[in-house]
Amino acid sequence: MGLSFVMMVPAIIAAEKRGKMKIVLLSAIALILIGQLLLGVAPHTILSVAAILFVYFLGFNILEASQRSLLSKLAPGTRKGAAAGVYNTTQSIGLALGGMIGGWLLKWMARARSFSLARGSSYAGL
Q1: Distance (Å, whole) CA 73 – CA 83
Q2: What is the pLDDT of residues 4-18, one digit of tens each?
Q3: Largest CA-CA distance found in the chain, in angstroms, rounded
């Protein structure tokens, strides 16, 4: 995860300088989707899981950084605080519900099926 964080910084800087944030955002979602696809089908050796998690967290870290950047650009000056509050609240709700729903899916469905649902939500984000 640390290496994916380091790799995320140049991607964000280059996208900001060139005005290509939309492409970077879509690429980050695609990286998350690819990571989920591979986690569902790849052999689970230490090296393969580490490589797949690198891909997944590269996309995740890019999204995490760029969403906050977008928030500060798009929100009007008088509403930036409220927008940040709504963003942080929905992010916390997503963290809580995501873990609970993911655990429930894993308990009641096969592992491959729960990965399929996660892939579907990532695909919907594209």
Answers
A1: 11
A2: 888 888 888 888 899
A3: 51
